[in-house]
Amino acid sequence: MMEPTRFDLSQDRLPTAWFNIMPSLVQAGIQPLPPLHPGTKEPVTPDLLAPLFPEALIMQEVATDEWIDIPGGILDVYRLWRPSPLHRAVRLEQALRTPARIYYKYEGVSPAGSHKPNTAVAQAFYNKEAGTKRIATETGAGQWGSALAMACSFFGIGCQVLMVKASYEQKPYRRIFMETFGAEVIPSPSPTTQAGKAILEAHPDSTGSLGIAISEAVEVAATSNGAVKYSLGSVLNHVLLHQTVIGLEAKEQMKLAGESDPHIVIGCVGGGSSYAGLAYPFIADRLAGRTQTRFIATEPAACPTLTKGRFAYDLADAAGMTPLLPMYTLGHSFVPAPVHAGGLRYHGDSPSLSLLVKHGHMEARAYTQSEVFDAAVRFAHAEGIIPAPESAHGLKAVIEEADAAREADEERVILVNLSGHGYFDMQAYDDYLNGRLPDFEFDPAAEDAAIADLPDAPSLGG
Amino acid sequence: MMEPTRFDLSQDRLPTAWFNIMPSLVQAGIQPLPPLHPGTKEPVTPDLLAPLFPEALIMQEVATDEWIDIPGGILDVYRLWRPSPLHRAVRLEQALRTPARIYYKYEGVSPAGSHKPNTAVAQAFYNKEAGTKRIATETGAGQWGSALAMACSFFGIGCQVLMVKASYEQKPYRRIFMETFGAEVIPSPSPTTQAGKAILEAHPDSTGSLGIAISEAVEVAATSNGAVKYSLGSVLNHVLLHQTVIGLEAKEQMKLAGESDPHIVIGCVGGGSSYAGLAYPFIADRLAGRTQTRFIATEPAACPTLTKGRFAYDLADAAGMTPLLPMYTLGHSFVPAPVHAGGLRYHGDSPSLSLLVKHGHMEARAYTQSEVFDAAVRFAHAEGIIPAPESAHGLKAVIEEADAAREADEERVILVNLSGHGYFDMQAYDDYLNGRLPDFEFDPAAEDAAIADLPDAPSLGG
Questions:
Q1: Which residues belong to CATH 3.40.50.1100 in chain B?
Q2: Is A136 in a helix, a strand, or coil?
Q3: B423–A427: do the CB atoms touch at under 8 Å?
Q4: How far is A400 from chain B (nearest CA, A)?
């Protein structure tokens, strides 16, 4: 009898509530900081967000309950691919000659190929309930746009996607995916918004950034007289909340595997939603003192928000259409080099995840493109799956930790979020295989200039 | 409590033997016909195949046992993605307003995105056991080449893929996928073989065909003095045998769903291996008189082997490197129009599947590209998954049968093989969405000219 290497949950064990990390933070003495109005610098009240989001999502954004029920209309769609599988990477362990036991939660089984539909479906559902007819959003690598396009199609809502130009050009298949689900896709910066026009006038060759694309999408909604709502694929509390189905399932699956408390939980961070989705149900145990699990967030060396950014109040977008968020940031006008991990090209991070790093509950590491693709190809040769460039950042840390376990001769248990597959990222692999993958350097000067005039985050509670 | 829509098998229920249809055919009075030597027209003996295949595969090619054990080294790799899921397409049923219950077996969860690894892994394993260092093969859409590249990488075998030029140009991501697993990919017809050179001299603009690519790959192996073996992704008995894990799992899963005997089992046919893989464990029950399940094989109108071909002995390749096979064929020099379903651009069909059609146990239907992509997009809008163009042929038949069930007001149970996803086929969807998808017509004159000089198949047994 062979040892099992895949741990499935049947559909009746799909989580029926999302997990909200906020009470755990507060109980651990970490006080969440409010977003501030960019003009008055006063805390933002929910009504200010009403032009952008339906009320249900705004209430989730400020929710203090630990559990929030998942409506049946969302579960019905989740069940197209959830619960997602948890695999033990036995062949990778063998290839690395490590005593570590490596598990990956695989979100690439979703129809859009990543974790993003977990929140896209929820956001489309609540918008449909609120009568929304059309949603505008931005997308980096195209994972988020694909997910929202699909979700909007399911609920009969129109969808407009501002796609970061670097990805629009690198990933035509992602554009076509969104168009197959009826979405309108526009490269950003675009001449269709004031924010886009301003960028194009200053930098006609701009390859775009998530910050710019967010400005454009927010502008579309804010200037629509209520006809269009806005949707964000990461960073905000309600987005991270929806992603916790990943970690809730993974906790059950790790128990099935006989590994209730992993030693190390790893993921990649752009805005932070996929990693928070896996990590938060586990980190609550650490915050409560029940475990000593280590958490490692990974990011690109070209956009090292957690490792080189400043913890400060900064705008979530480039043009100042959004509140100021308390987070690690490289400055809202920072435009990262066009690394293939387009989903990690964001100047900031989720506020709650930033707090966890600031308070030492999460480590952070930055990797260059060639390190990341080297890890990706090693994983593929062992496990078959070609990972998304974003997810491969986590795999680089997995390999480092598996090596460390071998050096320490310890049977450490490593859990990683394989947040998506790389089937839409093959051009990046072509570049890697043919030595055309530049290892962009981060320029600290670009950061300082951009966030010099921002108010520092207030001193932390606790 | 919601009704389940996904029926998982745990890893310990992965089939441990493949199902061989041959005894069922014989017991039903259908005598399999032997392949013939193209020169002597005498039945081919196993030793003639020895330069191309390892002995274990040749023995499977002529096996008469009903069950053939799957070695542990193959099961270890299958377990990376198998058992694959069976879904009930509830949202599609609702969209079609049909009383039919529609189930799809989803092979797109394999790392290469299709059913092809089921046999690629087996073939690589047996080659490794026999000491093979390098394998040459052809690929149409790239699904087969991707699967074999991955399988060869797992077992440390070199891999050379002759890729039909039409697909090579339409699907660069497929080429990169194979290269990521270390394979060498060459567009066919190529100047690297005599067969390729001859085609290029006669037709410099040839977009290639599976028949031509097979000639080239067989030539590479046959002229290698034993250094290179050959591997075929469909048509042959041993390939279909390996694919029966699909149907064996599906039978168990349909029982879990409470539907032991589906009314209709549907799939697409190029060489026939994915459809045989699903259908054969079910059709054995029909051959034995235990069920009256209907079987519908679907194919492109541009390459209508089963619906417009002739049942005759024909070469498996274009240049005459292979035995004559008894099958439905459009003639071995027939070059199908470059439809996006590259995996279905083959001039013949598996001999056993041809016999089942000839004897009336399987129906066959041909569809144009626009019909097929229309079905694909309807499926995607309901279930999320964007299907491979090949698989979408089956979905077109599903929709027809769901419509028929509505008209008859009958709760028919339909099972279809969703043999792969379309993430590497997005250019085809772009063409469809923008009205650039030609509905190629089949030219009967091309067929007659090509097979006029071939011996007819002997009269059928029974």
A1: 6-13+71-113+243-452, 50-63+116-230
A2: strand
A3: no
A4: 22
Out of A110, A117, A381, the one facing B181 most closely (by C-beta) is: A381
Closest CA to A362 of A299, A302, A304, A279: A279
Q: Are A154 and B12 within 8 A, CB to CB?
A: no
Q: Report the residue of chain B nearest A75, measured CA to CA.
A: B2
pLDDT in tens, B122-170: 999 999 999 999 999 999 889 999 999 999 999 999 999 999 998 898 8
| Cβ neighbours for B202, distance < 8 A, ≥ 6 positions apart | none
SS3 B111: coil
Residue in the structure block whose two tokens are 């490692």: A296
Closest CA to A429 of B403, B13, B367, B182: B182
- At A210-239, the pLDDT tens digits run 889 999 999 999 999 999 999 999 999 999
Which positions ≥6 away from A215 have C-beta within 8 Å? A193, A195, A196, A317, A318, A319, A320, A321, A322
Rounded-to-integer distance, Cα B462 and Cα B449, Å: 31
**Token pair listed for A321:** 């259409």
And the tokens for B18? 């493949």
- Taking Cα atoms as reference points, which of B395, B439, B401 lies closest to residue B418? B395
Closest chain A CA to residue B373: A180
Contact A11/B1, CB-based, under 8 Å?
Answer: no
Residue of A nearest to B9 (CA): A8
Report CB contact under 8 Å: B150, A384: yes
In this complex, the residue of A11, A153, A423 whose CB is nearest that of residue B424 is A423
**A111: closest CA of chain B, how far (Å):** 5
Is pTM beyond 0.90 here? yes
- Which fold does the domain B50-63+116-230 belong to in CATH? Rossmann fold (3.40.50)
Label residue A70 by pLDDT band (50, 70, 90). Answer: very high
Phi-psi region of B439 (alpha: psi -120 to 50; beta: other; left: phi over 0): beta
3-state secondary structure of B433: helix
Residues of B in contact with A173 (CB under 8 A): 173, 423, 426-427
- Give contacts of A177 with chain B, Cβ < 8 Å: 386, 423, 426, 429
Class of the domain covering B6-13+71-113+243-452: alpha beta
Q: Which residues contact B47 (CB under 8 A, 6 or more apart)?
A: none
CB contact under 8 A, B11 and A5: yes
A 10 A CB-CB count for A462 gives 11
Tens-place pLDDT, residues A290-320 = 999 999 999 999 999 999 999 999 999 888 8
**SS3 state of residue A122:** helix
Q: For A73-100, what is the mean pLDDT? A: 98
**Contacting residues for B57 by C-beta, under 8 A, at least 6 apart:** B123, B126, B238
Which of B11, B423, B430 lies closest to A6 in CB terms? B11
pLDDT at A459: 52
Residue A431 one-letter amino acid: D
How many Å apart are CA A352 and CA A366, to the nearest integer? 19
Tokens of A225: 């007289």
- Residue where the block lists tokens 């009967």: B444
Q: What is the ipTM of this complex?
A: 0.95
Q: Would you call B423 and A426 a contact, using CB atoms and an 8 Å cutoff?
A: no
Q: Where are the alpha helices (DSSP H) in A289-349?
A: 305-308
Judged against a pLDDT cut of 70, whether residue A458 lies above it is answered with no
DSSP per-residue string spanning B134-156: EEEEEESSSHHHHHHHHHHHHHT
Distance, in angstroms, between B3 CA and closest chain A CA? 9
Q: Strands (DSSP E) along A140-234, which ranges? A: 158-164, 184-188, 229-231
Of all helices (H) and strands (E), which one includes residue B172? helix B172-180
Residue numbers in A near B172 (CB within 8 A):
426-427, 430
